[in-house]
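Exercise 7. Given the encoded structure of a 342-residue chain, write a plausible sequence.
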C-alpha cells in the first residue's frame, strides 16, 4: 500500500471518528435535555436551603432554612406542616403522562397565565431546579407542569396520593406562617401566671423554685390563700399543656381587632422561660348571641341552653391577632383552686 493510499485511509478514518464523535455527543445532549425537562423531583430535600415561589399576580414567597426552622419572607417562622407538605411534593413529584399534542397549546397558555414559578436552591446562588406549576386536570389527580427553558408540558402527580399538588405551592400570606401561641418544654418553664380580671379569686402565679418544686399563690394580694394541701403533680400536669398550643387562624385583618382590644379580656396568660423570654396572650371570648352568664367555678361563659364559648380572639405579644379554640386551650385555662385539694 503506497503513501497516498495510507493518507487517504487515515483521513477517512479521522472523518468517520469525527462524525461519530459529533453524532454520539449530539445524542448525549438530546438525552440530557430529555432527562432535564422530565426531572422535576429533588430527591434529597435535606440539601434544600431556600425555596422561592412567585405568583402571576406579583405575590412572592421566600422560604429559607435556618437551623431546624424554616423562615417565611425573612421575618416569620413558617408553619411546619406547610413546609413538610411542600418538601414532600418537591421530593416525590413525578410525570404521570405526556398530554395529547393537540392540548399542548392550551396547556402552555394556562401555564403562562396561571403558572406558579418555583425556584429551588441548595447551597449555591443559582437554583438547582426551576419549574412552573399550572392548573389541575379535570379529575384533579394531576397538575400541569413545565420545566423552565423547555417547551414540553407534562401532567404530574405524587404516586399513591390523590389530589391536586398545586395547593401545596399555592399558599399565600399568613397561610405559610406558624400559628403557635405557646410552645415551651415544661422543664424550661420558669413561671406562668393567669389573670382572670372578672374572676380574681381564680387568678394565680406559678413559679419554679427547683427542678420539681413550685410555688403557687394568688395573683392578687387581696385573694385569700387556699388552706387545702397542694395536689401532687398538678403543677407538672399544668405545664405540660404549654408544649404545643396552636391557633386556628390569624385574624390580623379583622375589622373587629381594635374594638376587641378595648374590652376587658377574659384571661391574660403570661409565660416566662428559664432564659427570661416572656410570651403573653390576652384572650377575648367570642360570644354566641344567647350567652348570658359566666360560670364562677369553671370560668366558662354559659348560654341559656347550656352551650359554652367555643372560640377566643387572642392578642399575642408577638403583635399578632389570632383565633383559638376553647377545646385546644381548655387544658391550661385553670384556676388557682386546680392546684389544691384532692
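Solution.
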Amino acid at each position: 500500500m503506497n503513501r497516498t493510499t495510507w493518507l487517504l485511509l487515515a483521513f477517512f478514518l479521522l472523518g468517520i471518528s469525527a462524525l461519530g464523535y459529533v453524532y454520539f455527543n449530539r445524542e448525549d445532549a438530546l438525552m440530557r435535555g430529555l432527562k432535564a425537562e422530565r426531572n422535576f423531583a429533588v430527591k434529597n430535600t435535606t440539601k434544600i436551603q431556600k425555596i422561592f415561589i412567585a405568583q402571576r399576580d406579583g405575590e412572592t414567597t421566600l422560604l429559607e432554612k435556618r437551623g431546624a426552622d424554616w423562615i417565611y419572607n425573612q421575618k416569620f417562622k413558617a408553619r411546619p406542616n406547610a413546609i413538610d407538605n411542600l418538601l414532600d411534593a418537591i421530593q416525590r413529584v413525578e410525570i404521570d403522562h405526556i398530554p395529547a399534542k393537540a392540548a399542548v397549546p392550551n396547556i402552555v397558555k394556562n401555564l403562562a397565565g396561571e403558572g406558579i414559578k418555583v425556584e429551588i436552591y441548595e447551597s449555591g446562588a443559582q437554583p438547582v431546579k426551576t419549574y412552573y406549576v399550572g392548573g389541575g386536570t379535570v379529575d384533579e389527580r394531576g397538575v400541569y407542569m413545565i420545566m423552565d427553558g423547555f417547551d414540553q408540558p407534562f401532567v404530574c402527580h405524587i404516586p399513591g396520593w390523590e389530589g391536586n399538588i398545586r395547593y401545596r405551592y399555592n399558599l399565600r400570606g399568613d397561610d405559610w406562617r406558624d400559628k403557635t401561641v405557646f410552645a415551651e418544654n415544661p422543664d424550661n418553664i420558669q413561671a406562668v401566671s393567669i389573670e382572670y380580671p372578672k374572676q380574681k379569686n381564680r387568678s394565680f402565679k406559678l413559679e419554679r423554685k427547683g427542678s420539681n418544686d413550685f410555688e403557687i399563690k394568688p395573683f392578687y394580694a387581696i385573694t385569700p390563700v387556699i388552706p387545702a394541701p397542694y395536689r401532687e403533680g398538678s403543677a407538672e400536669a399544668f405545664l405540660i399543656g404549654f408544649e404545643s398550643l396552636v391557633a386556628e387562624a390569624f385574624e390580623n385583618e379583622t375589622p373587629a381587632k381594635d374594638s376587641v382590644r378595648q374590652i376587658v379580656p377574659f384571661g391574660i396568660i403570661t409565660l416566662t422561660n428559664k432564659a427570661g423570654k416572656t410570651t403573653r396572650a390576652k384572650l377575648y371570648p367570642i360570644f354566641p348571641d344567647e350567652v348570658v352568664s359566666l360560670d364562677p367555678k369553671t370560668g366558662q361563659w354559659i348560654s341559656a341552653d347550656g352551650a359554652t364559648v367555643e372560640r377566643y380572639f387572642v392578642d399575642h405579644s408577638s403583635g399578632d391577632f389570632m383565633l383559638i379554640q376553647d377545646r385546644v386551650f381548655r387544658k391550661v385555662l385553670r384556676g388557682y383552686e386546680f392546684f389544691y385539694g384532692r
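Remark. Residues 270 and 280 are 4 Å apart (CA to CA). Students should compare their own answers with the one above.
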